Prior knowledge:
The protein has four helices and eight strands, in the order βαβββαβαβββα. By secondary structure, it is α/β, with parallel strands linked by helices.
Amino acid sequence: MPIINISVTGKPDAKLSATLAKEATDTTAKLLHKDPTITAVAVNYIDPQHWFAGGKSLAEHGTNTFWLDIKVVDGTNTKLELEAYLKAIFEAFGRLLGGVHEESYALVHEVPAAAYGFGGKSQEFRFITGRLKAA
Length: 135
């Protein structure tokens, strides 16, 4: 049930948004083992003249960039899974956006299960309820 926020340089493009959302969802399912049916993705666009890296705008650099921010429940992934995910996201977005600046970022927020949820129920509640049903 991750929520993924993606920001990229450029003008809004519905086709690119759908492609980025699918790539993020698929990569998240494959490498972080998250259910794609309850993965939410929001894509935002920022004019490259308003995104800066190393004191220069991305328009000046002549490159694209991205920022992917995902929230998952803490303790549900290993360091090796997280490492593989960050690498895969950078490679995929580099391919999709073309010529991404090295200062493009992905951040996996590992948040407490009691403080994170959807549909008005925390992941901790869902875990406990699931264990009680299994017993």
